[in-house]
Amino acid sequence: MTAATHSSLFPQDPDAGQFVEPPRDADAVLDGLDPEQREVATALHGPVCVLAGAGTGKTRAITHRIAYGVRAGILQPASVLAVTFTNRAAGEMRGRLRQLGAGGVQARTFHSAALRQLQYFWPKVVGGELPRLLERKVQLVAESAARCRIRLDRNELRDVTGEIEWAKVTQTVPGDYPAAVAKSHRDAPRDPAEIGQIYAMYEQLKRDRSVIDFEDVLLLTVGILQDRHDIADQIRGQYQHFVVDEYQDVSPLQQRLLDLWMGDRENLCVVGDASQTIYSFTGATPDHLLNFRTRHPSATMVKLVRDYRSTPQVVHLANGLLNQASGRAAEHRLELISQRDAGPEPVYTEYADEPAEAEGTARRIRDLVAAGVPAGEIAVLYRINAQSEVYEQALADAGVPYQLRGAERFFERQEVREAGAALRGAARFGGNDSLLDDVVDLPSQVRAVLSTKGWTTEPPTGSGAVRDRWESLAALVRLAEDFVRARPEATLGDLVTELDERAAAQHAPTVQGVTLASLHAAKGLEWDAVFLVGLTEGMMPITYAKTDEQVEEERRLLYVGVTRARLHISLSWALSRAPGGRASRRPTRFLSGLRPGSPAPGRGAGASGGGASERGGRRKRRGPVLCRVCGTTLTDAGEMKLMRCEGCPSDMDEGLYERLREWRSDQAKQLGQPAYCVFTDKTLMAIAESVPGDDGELSRISGVGGRKLERFGADVLAICAGEEPVGEDEES
What is the pLDDT of residue 20? Predict the structure, then answer.
């Protein structure tokens, strides 16, 4: 097989012709590499595994490795296939290789490389043209669900589509999907049996219509290479050296394809960091990276730990996070060593509430910009996209330009637009809407309207589009509650006007601005200054991270966020959601022993009232919520309401619980609201278990805030005492 010519097996890479005259001496390619990077660059034979920490120059090392091999005559450009996970990363790699004189090297994503091979060999193997590629599978999934007589809303549709993608990259067939979900402890967005049905119908419809999806590209390529040894030999003759970047993100299906490309050869170089595995929900697993030495006993192992991105202060924090980690990935963590001059210490800031946190963050960003830090070199990173709205508003109010990455602006999201339309209609025609009859206040009106759009008092379990939609609607409910606190006489029309003004202010175009992004969307990027916000239990780790593995992935997600910062790193949390709210939140357990004044993990971490080097609020932090039965610290919202673990025995007075439910039903009818707007089931269960005897005991139950205590407290305490409720205060 010859080098890259027009008669080569596959269509010529359009980048291959853009050739930069390389340095004549191959050793010149090694100039400027540190000893470990040089070891990577010169290890051109046999299997090589590079464990590369954040900011250690892994792309530099592997591109110089390829270029050195080409300049030394050891590698033919057309015989090298470098694969990574995003088109951006592949493009960056091609650009660097061209500059180093190795422009004929193929640098592609797994899907791109497989698609080219599939297009080339399909006529020979099957005949005719490759079936049409389905760009978006959502419509076909929707039709599949309809044929199965299963109703999915838009968000469930997105989640089920994601489940089908996960099943395919983990090589799970429809009939095995329910068992695979159970085995992996995966939070399915619907009954797994239903998703299995939809998945089977989806596959049938694709066959009937001769279309394939992106996962099929990999599956079909794998099938051809397994069945046609002559074609596998052709590809192995074309590509003799392989490089895989971000190897910790490889799925079982991608690994199978790589094995077939390789055959029985071992000219493979993989690069990865198990501590940056944050996409397990898509099927990615670090097992292939961690098992590399077992599969390839003769492999050359190189660790890159010299961090050129971040200051010693940022690196010290990142190392500290991983030092507390557990699990298999933690056993292979890399201790980074900063190569930069000393910088400012990390800033830990505790705020009284979320708006104060956003405003304080915006002020600090404005100060940094005034001090000469470009706005484009600053990022605000959060756990979920629904957190963006309060930061969008705070930055807009501070006159700081911003841009969102990986998500729509808050007021441009479909569910927010739909909610806005519903609220606008209620404001205009509410007098004729039975939904709003006898609703006592503005927040209750908003909750009643948004309950028709999917908002509930309790969030849905698990992650995905349904959870994202709920978070957006919950943000609107919180905004209404905050708005009426500032303007007690405000009407629903006033709130709609406020929402319109906020939306209009945030539509202003920005050219160079502060980046707002989720932690997942920030992977692979870096900034001079990074603000990690909302770092409270329940958000970091997220509430639905239940297993030890899921919690450890949340820790790695925070680690990725920290290592995005070059110079300034700020970490903050709020003790309550809204101004005047109870200070019931605690900073994330991941910062225990790292932030000033906090105890080391395992010694009551999070219970201390100290720890912030700056104070954005004066409220005294409450201690952790402990299970009344076994004493375990509770982090799940439902368990915190019950004040016990779900698995611990209940001592609930069933008769009292039923009397409370009957009373709640009567109250809800009088108010014209759903029952959960009075108290949720979990709150009633907690009351029936603890049987409070006075206002103080009742107020300590999660879900009984100041206003509900004032409005319903006398009735609840009377019922708990075995007496008749006294009736609602006429003036409340």
Answer: 42
What average pLDDT is seen over the chain? 82
Predicted local distance difference test score (pLDDT) of residue 646: 65
Whether 384 and 538 have beta carbons less than 8 Å apart is answered as no
CA gap 5, 74 in Å, rounded: 19
pLDDT tens per residue across span 161-217:
989 999 998 889 999 999 988 888 787 888 899 999 999 999 999 999 989 998 999
Yes or no: say if 305 and 53 are a contact pair by the CB < 8 Å rule.
Answer: yes
Q: Do residues 576 and 352 make contact, with C-beta atoms less than 8 angstroms apart? A: yes
Burial of 464 (0-12, 13-18, 19+ CB in 10 A): buried
Q: What is the gyration radius of the CA atoms in the chain, in angstroms?
A: 29
Helix pair angle (58-71, 35-42), 10° resolution: 40
Instruction: Look up residue 486 and give its two tokens.
Output: 């500032």
In angstroms, rounded to a whole number, what is the distance separating the alpha carbons of residues 81 and 66?
10
Query: Among positive and negative, which fits the CA dihedral 497, 498, 503, 507?
Result: positive
b/e per residue, 707-723, with b = 16+ CB within 10 A?
A: ebbebbbbbbbebbeee
Q: Tell whether pTM > 0.70.
A: no
d(CA 21, CA 194): 59
Q: How far apart are the first and last CA of the chain?
A: 85
| pLDDT at 671 exceeding the cut of 70 | yes
Q: How far is CA 45 from the centre of its chain?
A: 38
User: Distance between CA 551 and CA 548 in Å, rounded?
Assistant: 5
Give me the pLDDT at residue 470, please: 76
In this structure, which amino acid lies at residue 83? V
Place of tokens 């450890």: 552
DSSP-H helix ranges across 346-464: 354-370, 388-397, 414-429, 442-451
Which has the closest alpha carbon to 243: 86, 44, 76? 44
Cis? peptide before 541, omega within 30° of 0: yes
CA–CA dist 85, 4 (Å, integer): 24
- Nearest-5° Cα angle at 263, 261 to 269: 65
HEC profile for 520-535? CCCCCCCEEEEEECCC
Residue 315's pLDDT is what?
94
Copy the structure tokens of residue 289. 């990276």
Tokens, residue 88: 């951006």
**Measuring CA to CA, which residue among 531, 548, 618, 530 is closest to residue 576?**
618
Backbone angles phi, psi at 645, to 5 degrees: -65, 145
DSSP 22-55: PPSSGGGGGTT--HHHHHHHH--SS-EEEEE-TT
Mean pLDDT of 378-386: 92
Write out the DSSP string of 254-277: HHHHHHHHHTT---EEEEE-GGG-
Judge whether 719 and 660 are in contact, CB under 8 Å. yes
What is d(CA 94, CA 59) in angstroms, rounded to the nearest whole number? 11
CA distance linking residue 533 with residue 398, whole number of Å: 17
- 28 by Cβ neighbours in 10 Å (0-12 / 13-18 / 19+) ranks as middle
Amino acid at 358: A
Tokens 């995003």: give the residue. Answer: 86
**Beta strands per DSSP E along 591-732:** 614-616
Res 617: pLDDT: 42
CB 406 within 8 A of CB 518: yes
Token look-up 């309790």 returns: 458
The Cα 30–Cα 53 span in angstroms is 20
